[in-house]
UniProtKB/TrEMBL annotation:
<dbReference type="InterPro" id="IPR032752">
    <property type="entry name" value="DC-UbP/UBTD2_N"/>
</dbReference>
<dbReference type="InterPro" id="IPR039869">
    <property type="entry name" value="UBTD1/2"/>
</dbReference>
<feature type="domain" description="DC-UbP/UBTD2 N-terminal">
    <location>
        <begin position="16"/>
        <end position="111"/>
    </location>
</feature>
<feature type="region of interest" description="Disordered">
    <location>
        <begin position="1"/>
        <end position="28"/>
    </location>
</feature>
<protein>
    <recommendedName>
        <fullName>DC-UbP/UBTD2 N-terminal domain-containing protein</fullName>
    </recommendedName>
</protein>
<dbReference type="Pfam" id="PF16455">
    <property type="entry name" value="UBD"/>
</dbReference>
<dbReference type="InterPro" id="IPR038169">
    <property type="entry name" value="DC-UbP/UBTD2_N_sf"/>
</dbReference>
Amino acid sequence: MGCAGSSRSKGDETGKKVRKPKPWKHSEPITRAQLVQMRDEFWDTAPHYGGRKEIWDALRAAAEADISLAQTIVDSAGIIVQAADLTVCYDERGAKYELPKYVLSEPTNLTGEN
């Protein structure tokens, strides 16, 4: 037997539903190409800052999916969502994963130029 507080109950898993991030604005207008480059750089380097690669991969898949699929990915990977917009998450071992808003949604000042 274990302590009742040592693991998540089914009710805890549904406590934080994934939602779209609130609108945000980059410090200066950026193009889609610049946004894609920033995202690629983040995902390429993120695993080097700690945590498990499979969790980073799941977070990337969730960030690039629609909300209902993102929820399924997060639940399946055992990711604990602290911030419903996925900016702060934990894995089951307690490692923290922080995602910048630019990998989760587009800024309000995205320009049409390349």
